[in-house]
């Protein structure tokens, strides 16, 4: 085998693999959408709420060690005591009648006579039916969600997901974009976890992308604007939560995109503000350090939130954004 052929083989294999993964993902999303819409027809709960709950639970399970990893098509998970009833002697009960007697939540959604928490239709039907007791309009759905999760943040995240699914009419909201224009003059390196002095001992929870004042800052994802305003460390900043329940934080901005407000839906590549040097003092403080975008990423597990290193993601999105721009030309 010549070197050229070996190179070709190594070079193309991962690409084909990536395309196959993408195709599998598209098929999976299609299958999920069919189930969500079926449940909407049976229960009157809008598909985007059902999809939002399922997605919230999928994300939580991926990052929590005390919950089983999501298997199969759905993310929603019912602990056995919730499904079959807390004092049900058979915690693997699939009989709808005995589950009902023991005050379990589990129901039969696909009409096979069994209430199986591992069956997608049974699981989603059960949840949608629970919500339906509260009503199917948005205010009542939020009350139902609060009663179930007992956490304001969970309700906020789920209603945000529902808003995004409704607005875009698709489950495929995973695209990302580099936060600065690729043609701008910028530089960044991996400094996550470095010590930071100002305002007490802290670690650096992000990546600093150095660029001139006024350079455009774009949303890195499909998401909901969750935070906008001043903080003595971050200056003028914006926080956006994406469909993976990752929180994207943009700090030290010079200003915001016109009309952008909390609760707005944004797309990857949408203008949200510009690079500045705001922060390290009372509102309006600027120029205490060279202009840069402080970009942070945070993960939520249903209980707490923590920072992780955005640098590898920025590198990936920079490459993907460049490839997309080339493909358009
Ligand atoms: Zn920073």
If you had to describe this structure to a student in words, what would you say it looks like?
It comes from Perspicuibacillus lycopersici. Pfam families: Peptidase_M23 (PF01551). Keywords: Signal. InterPro entries: Cell_wall_metabolism_enzyme (IPR050570), Dup_hybrid_motif (IPR011055), M23ase_b-sheet_dom (IPR016047). Residues 203-301 form the M23ase beta-sheet core domain. The protein has helices at 3-43, 47-63, 80-84, 96-101, 120-132, 138-149, 152-168, 311-328, and strands at residues 187-188, 195-196, 202-203, 207-210, 216-218, 223-231, 235-242, 246-256, 265-266, 271-275, 292-300, 305-308. The model is unreliable at 1-13 (pLDDT under 50). The strands form two sheets. Strands 1, 4, 5, 6, 7, 8, 9, 10, 11 and 12 form a ten-stranded antiparallel sheet that branches. It has a two-stranded antiparallel sheet with strand order 2-3. It has eight helices and twelve strands. The longest helix has 41 residues, at 3-43. The chain folds into two domains: 3-78 and 117-168, Lysozyme (Orthogonal Bundle); 187-328, Glucose Permease (Domain IIA) (Distorted Sandwich). It is α+β, with helices and mostly antiparallel strands and 329 residues long. α1 crosses α2 and α2 (47-63) packs across α7. Bound molecules: zinc ion (ZN). Residues 204, 206, 208, 294 line the site of zinc ion. Zinc ion is lined by residues 204, 206, 208, 294.
Strand tally: 12
Percent of sequence in beta strands:
15-25%
User: What do we call the CATH topology of the largest domain?
Assistant: Glucose Permease (Domain IIA)
Principal-axes shape call: elongated
- Radius of gyration, in angstroms, nearest whole number: 23 Å
Mean pLDDT across all amino acids: 91
Count of discrete structural domains: 2
Which regions contain 5 or more consecutive residues with pLDDT less than 50?
A: 1-13
Q: Which cofactors or ions or other ligands sit in this model?
A: zinc ion
User: In the CATH classification, which architecture of the largest domain applies?
Assistant: Distorted Sandwich
Classified by CATH, the class of the largest domain is: Mainly Beta
